[in-house]
Amino acid sequence: MSFGVNQEEIDCDNVMECLYDLSALDKKILAVLSEEEELTSSEIAEKLDKDQSTAYRSLEKLFDCGLVYKEKKTIRNGGYYFHYSLRPLDKIKEEALSCVERWYEEMKDSIKYMDISNL
Fold first, then answer.
1. What CA–CA distance (Å, rounded) separates 3 from 49?
2. pLDDT by residue (tens digit) across 10-23?
3. Angle, to 10 degrees, between the axis of helix 24-35 and the axis of helix 41-48?
4. Which residue in 58, 73, 110, 118 is a FRET match for 49, CA 20 to 30 A apart?
5. How far from chain centre, in Å, is Cα 106?
6. Smallest Cα–Cα separation from 66: which of 39, 43, 99?
């Protein structure tokens, strides 16, 4: 039986990609944030040689997924910017496990009521 990925191929990269629909850029940004305490979108864009708007869109997706924190910083003469930081790994793992458990229960329920004639 095959589900598109061999069990030998299942690793952190596959799991994160599947659970959060991460792009290659999203994963690179997480790697950068794992090495730094906090960064702005422009600092991340510079480190990855990407446009700031591209980095910003990816950071907002990661924030929406609950993988990064976003803290608003006010500029003294007006305006603001955001610092991004990686959420603690134990929190990410806890939420990922919860997500997998919910998915597993939903799959079990779907199989109980499976009707091949409606496929």
1. 36
2. 777 777 888 888 99
3. 110
4. 73
5. 22
6. 99
Within a 13 Å sphere around the CA of 59, how many CA atoms are in the beta-carbon half? 26
Domain ranges across the chain: 7-87
Q: Phi then psi for 23, rounded to 5 degrees?
A: -90, 175
Residue 71's SS3 state is: strand
pLDDT tens-digit series, residues 45-55? 999 999 999 99
What would be the CATH architecture of the domain defined by 7-87? Answer: Orthogonal Bundle (1.10)
Query: Side chain identity at 112, as an amino acid letter?
Result: K
Q: What Cα–Cα distance (Å) separates residue 39 from each residue in 8, 68, 96?
A: 35, 11, 24
What is the SS3 assignment for 97?
Answer: helix
**Dihedrals phi, psi of 86, to nearest 5 degrees:** -75, 135
Q: What is the distance between the alpha carbons of residues 119 and 110, in angstroms, rounded to a whole number?
A: 13
